[in-house]
Amino acid sequence: MKAKRIIIVANTTWNIYNFRLNIIRKLIDEGHEVIVMAPVDKFIFYTETLPQVQHIPIRHLYRDSVNPFQDIRLFLEFVNLYKHYKPDLVLHYTVKPNIFGGFAARLLGIPSVAVVTGLGYSLIHEGWINRITRMLYKFSLPYHRKVIFENIDDKKLFEDEGLTLSSRSMSIKGCGVDTTAFSPNGDGRKEGLIIFTFIGRLLYDKGVKEFIEAAQLIKSNDHIRFWLVGEIDKENPSSIRNDDLMRWIRDPKIQYHGATDHIRKFIEQSDCIVLPSYREGMPRVIMEAMSMERPVITTDTAGCRETVDENINGYLVPVKNSKALAGAMNKFIALDTEARIKMGKAGRIKVMNEFDDRLIANHLYEALQNCWNGKK
């Protein structure tokens, strides 16, 4: 098979480093040339371990900008870049690359794929931004040879609303998790303590408020702790307010550990990872926790529900329901040590069978092959 030149586009280099290295490595291993296009941030160091990759900075991609003139500049930048590098296929991730990169690829007659990694703030919340985003998706998605979703609920939503056709769409379970890096090596849990941990950006849409409210509903006990791990994403409209955070952490059983690049350390020290999100593409931190044999509690919503077999590797609770979340926590507290360990091991097995990043990369690679071969 003739080697292809593949461009991968995302809205941040952070996104590339954290979620796309598996497909990049797969493409390189299969003998293809990979060019990555994304705004440069501190995670550009990924190129040191992948010297075969050429990283091209995108200068006009501002993920939260609603300025139409800025978006026109982004579209023109994509046109110039694609015209210069002449790829055989472009793989787009996140909203603006999917839309404006899709328009540019269509204009130049370049095959392209859109990966919808989740609805994001613009589609979760009603308003004019929601309506414009839907309209742009409706116009741009037909220009892609394939539209890939990270969960079956998002796929169905886009099809039901006429944003894409079922014949052009498919679902692949997220970006996967490195089951070697996130392995159950050692046990950092402290005997006599139960630690529930929220890990992620501190957004109201991630269910941070419900996590805190549930913690406050749990009967006071010196042996139970609630950890918050993550950064305040000030650019996101759903970001928590500083005064809320200050008020929450006055409670001695709630500890805020700030942002971290060492998630494994906190998963290892936790007994249960909790993500009461309103909606996800596919919750990476839940898969990482399962891979490290930690039980999980998350919401019965898009993306999240695909990670949990109820009472087997964790619990599902309704969205925006602090009382139900507290009930699930109490249910976990009532388990003996052997039952918690069994639940964690079941999660690891599920990850190995469904979410291993090599398995996900293989599924995605097969879809890309079909696209550059002209198949649906």
TrEMBL record:
<dbReference type="Pfam" id="PF00534">
    <property type="entry name" value="Glycos_transf_1"/>
</dbReference>
<protein>
    <submittedName>
        <fullName>Glycosyltransferase family 4 protein</fullName>
    </submittedName>
</protein>
<dbReference type="Pfam" id="PF13439">
    <property type="entry name" value="Glyco_transf_4"/>
</dbReference>
<feature type="domain" description="Glycosyl transferase family 1">
    <location>
        <begin position="188"/>
        <end position="348"/>
    </location>
</feature>
<dbReference type="InterPro" id="IPR028098">
    <property type="entry name" value="Glyco_trans_4-like_N"/>
</dbReference>
<dbReference type="InterPro" id="IPR001296">
    <property type="entry name" value="Glyco_trans_1"/>
</dbReference>
<dbReference type="GO" id="GO:0016757">
    <property type="term" value="F:glycosyltransferase activity"/>
</dbReference>
<feature type="domain" description="Glycosyltransferase subfamily 4-like N-terminal">
    <location>
        <begin position="22"/>
        <end position="149"/>
    </location>
</feature>
